[in-house]
Amino acid sequence: MIRNYRDLTRLEMEQVDKENTIILIPVGALEQHGNQAPLGTDDIIAEAMVEYLGRALEEAGEKDFPILAFPVIPVGLSTEHRNFCGSVTLRPDTYYHLLYDISVSLAHHGFKKLAFLVCHGGNAPIVQVLSRELRSELGISPFILSSGAFGHPDVRATVSEGNIYDFHGGEMETSMVMAVDPSLVKLETAEAGIPTAFVGNQTLKTGGSVTIGWVSEDWKTADGKPIGIGGDPSGATAEKGRIILETSAKVLVPGLREIRDWKA
Hints:
Number of helices: 7
Radius of gyration: 19 Å
Low-confidence stretches: none
Strand order of the largest sheet: 1-3-2-4-5
Number of domains: 2
CATH class of the largest domain: Alpha Beta
Structural class: alpha/beta
Shape: globular
Number of strands: 9
Order of helices and strands: EHEHEHEHEHHEEEEH
Largest sheet: 5 strands, parallel
CATH architecture of the largest domain: 3-Layer(aba) Sandwich
C-alpha cells in the first residue's frame, strides 16, 4: 500500500527519509470526456492508479517501497476542451507555476525525488518543461510517469475490433472509469468520434512527425457533430478497465525501482 502524503502528521513527516522517498504527484484534469464518461475521468483514473501502483509494488515484493502519494492535482491544462460544457482549464503559465510552487515547497523540506504521474496528455508538455527547469534550478530529480500503457499489447487487446480511432474519452478511458465506479458511466448516451479533418492524410495527423495542436472540435460524429472524443466507447466494460489499470501499474514498477536507486 502506498501511503498518502496528506495522512501524515507534521512529526511523522519530519521523520521521513527525504533523500530517498519519492513524492508521487498525480496530475489530472477536469474536462469533457464525451456524453458517457464523467468530467473527472482523469482524476478518477489518477486516484485509481495510485491504488493499483501500490498493489503492483506489493506483488513485486516491494511492500516497504519509499513512496508517498501527493493529493491529485484536479485541474490541469485543458485548452483543447474549453469549448465543451463543464471543462475547466488553467492557463499554461498558471499551471506551470502551480506545479512549480508545489515542487519548491517539497524541495524546501528536503525532498529530492518527485514523480509526476501524468493522467491527462494535455499536461505533459508543461510537466516536461517543468522537470528540466526544476532539475536545473533546484538540483532535485523530477521524473515523469505515464498513467496509461495504451500501447501495451494487453491493453490494445481490450479495444473492440474496428474501433480504430480509440483515444481521449474512448473505450479504454471509459473502461478505466467503469473499473472504479460503473455508475458514473452512461453508455446508453455514447457516441463515437472520428478525427474527420485528418482522415485520409498520409502525414498530417493528430500526432506524429507532422501535426497540429488538435482541439476537441476536430473529433466529430459520423454526421459531422463535434463530439470531442476518439473512437467508439460503447464497448467499454469494467473488466477491460481493470486489465488496463493493472497493466499500466505493472509497467511502471521497473521504472519506480530505477527512480528509487537513482543518484543525482
